[in-house]
Amino acid sequence: MKTWLITGTSTGLGRLLCEQLLERGDRVIATLRKQGALDDLLALHGDRLQTLTLDVTDTEAITAVVSQAFEAAERIDVIVSNAGYGLFGAAEEASPEQIERQLATNLTGSIHLIRAVLPHLRAQGGGRIVQVSSEGGQIAYPGFSLYHATKWGIEGFVESVAKEVAPFAIDFVIIEPGPTATHFAEGLDRTTPMACYEDTPAAEVRRALASGAFVVKGDAGRTVEALIHAADMTHPPLRLALGSTAYASISEALAERIRSLEEYRHVTFSADIDAKA
Question: Could you tell me which InterPro entries the record lists for this protein (predicted)?
Answer without folding.
Answer: NAD(P)-bd_dom_sf (IPR036291), SDR_fam (IPR002347), SDR_oxidoreductase (IPR051911)
